[in-house]
Amino acid sequence: MKIAVLGPSSEALHMTQDLLRLGASVRLFWQSAFVTSVEQELFAQDVLIPAPFKSVTKRFLIAGETPGARSRFADLFRVSYEVNPVERVETIQSEQPEVFEKLSSEFMDSLKSRLELFEDFDVVIDATESKLVRHIGPGGPCVGESRLREGSLYFLDSLSELAQKLSHHELALVGDGFVAASALKQLAAWWRQSKSRIFIITNQGSPFEHYLQKTRDRELHDFLSEARSEHEQEMVQYNVELAAWDELDDFVKVKKVKPAEPIPRLVFFSAHLVTAADQLIDKSRTFLTLETSPWNEPQVQVENSQIDIKTIGVDFVMGACGRQRDHSRFYGLDLRLSLDGKRAGDDSGIHPEVGFFSLQNSTQREAIVQNLLTFFSPKESSQ
């Protein structure tokens, strides 16, 4: 039985090693650059293909088709990938120059273009890493999001680029979870030094509650506590100044400005969704339309939920709505996917498409191996 493992990821490496120990024929699709000695070793064994896969289809079956009374498993999976043959061509040319002497320059140029190859497999295991969600609306891009100017919307993998532009600005962070927590921790130093403001927008009633329960992230917990303490101290000072102003005679009050209630520098719009984004032609700021969720109750800074629809203006927007599995390169396969794109297959990584598996953690790896043993045995595969 021939198995394709789609990487790169640590789980892809572990799965490949497990399958090799069982005596299976494995091909691991990887990136062109190697980082560890394990990758080098697998490449030397002709197991690792240093090229990302382009697509996975069935060899002959189209979407929804079954081969008579047989299972779709009767047909192989076809995995295509691209390689750059330049280095190999140049090596052969230097070793056997006579082979290339009569070839035209046009033909030589064609040898140096990227080639698309394929291999067929009985089983495919998708162990690719999930990708960042690249939208800020509820379940997809919000209205107007696609028209935002370049340089106004950022994601976690471009946070370093954003950091170079930040000074005394206001930033909207959309999301709640691992990605949002990572972004917020990286922005903490800027927040402290610049005295700027971050608006955190999440559909959760209590921002980061589920994340902190899972991770016990002390760094994020301390940062949130620091921001809350800062505002509480400002409110104490404000109440003292307001009480003093109230004691003034009326003829003095008209000459003295009433103290303004301080706005937190970490503003939470809990149980809110971004439903629209817009920019004015002659302005650099981005305006986000926020609406309260009809399903969740705000539990933090509840006063921000008194109006169901509001618009805020910020200098930059940071999308941090999590990660999702990318299935755009799988064609015509009967896959079971969660609506939010974060999970694939059942808890064991198994799909209705027999022979196709999704691997995200070690528990699924064990379940997939056990499922594969129903198709072949280690003893038979090693003979």
Short overview:
The protein has 383 residues and is an alpha/beta fold. The chain has 12 helices and 18 strands.
Which oligomeric form is depicted? Answer: single chain
Helix/strand order? EHEHEEEHHHEEEEHEHEHHHEEEEEEEHH
Question: What is the radius of gyration?
Answer: 28 Å
Share of helical residues: 25-40%
Protein structure class? alpha/beta
What's the rounded overall pLDDT mean?
92
Main sheet overview: 5 strands, parallel
Gross morphology is elongated
Number of alpha- plus pi-helical segments: 12
The number of distinct β-strands equals 18
Side-by-side strand order of the widest sheet: 3-2-1-7-18
Strand content: 15-25%
Poorly predicted ranges = none
Fold and architecture overview:
The chain is of the alpha/beta class. The protein has twelve helices and 18 strands. The protein has helices at residues 10-21, 37-44, 86-95, 97-100, 105-111, 159-163, 178-194, 209-215, 218-246, 250-253, 362-372, 378-381, and strands at residues 2-6, 25-29, 48-49, 53-58, 77-83, 115-121, 123-126, 131-132, 153-155, 170-174, 197-202, 266-270, 272-279, 286-292, 309-314, 316-319, 323-324, 356-358. The chain has a five-stranded parallel sheet. Helix 1 (10-21) links the parallel strand 1 (2-6) and strand 2 (25-29). The longest helix is centred in the middle third of the chain and has 29 residues, at 218-246. It is elongated. It starts with a strand and ends with a helix. The model has no long low-confidence stretch (mean pLDDT 92).
